[in-house]
Request: fold
Amino acid sequence: MFTPNIWVLRGIIAIFLISVVAASAGSFSIFQKSTFFVSGIAHGSLAGAALGIYISLYFFPINPFIMAMMFSVLFAVAIGIASHRKENIEVAIGIMFSFSMSLAILFLAMIKEYASVAWGLIIGDLLLLSSQDVIWMLITVALILLIFFTFRRKILFSIFDPEVAMVQGINPYLYETLLFILIALGVVVLLKGVGAILVYALLIVPAATAKRIAGSFEGTIIYSFFISLISGLGGIFLSLFTSVVPSAYAGLIATFIYFLSLFKK
Reply:
């Protein structure tokens, strides 16, 4: 009788959750043109997770996932505040990117004797997720969906027509910051499964491909979900026959699908 491998099942559940994030937060990132923001937040969440590991090792137990979430949200709010104060958004993201990268290197150096743990944060491994990891991912995705469905129209209004939104009493800066928080939570979900390096590949590439194929925002969401899902499941399948982590294959598959979409007329 066939007994499914619990590690593979957790990986498949994680890919499904990651695909939901790619469809929601990833699509918003593409339409908001804040894809560079994802890289900055990825390094911020990496710094938070590394600090969480350091605190757990030398002081008191704390879930690195929670620290990653706290850092990501704080960085997202900081970028939102900088944007509200008329700072160029790309400049604000670039500054936070360098700051988060510096913190990540600092905290990773502090746990260098636990190199395997640090390496796991950088490249991730969908087949090494614990039940607790999956539960935290599930809780975070539920929070993302709550924000997504509650404020979707106001966020889109703020993105596409901020002047009119302001006239109608909608604070575009508030909802832009809320969008940044949404994306930041999405990055945290991906960090554990695919690592900081490949967050961009599975959050942005499927959404970018979907936008080329679909003719609407709703269509982008649907296509993005399935492209991410196919890429992730393909990555898990290929990794079962090699010693390469699934995220590497998933990133390659997602990118290959993107290049195929370039030939769409």
Remarks:
- The mean pLDDT is 83.
- Residues 6-261 form a domain with the ABC transporter involved in vitamin B12 uptake, BtuC fold (CATH 1.10.3470.10).
- Residues 131-160 form the longest helix (30 residues).
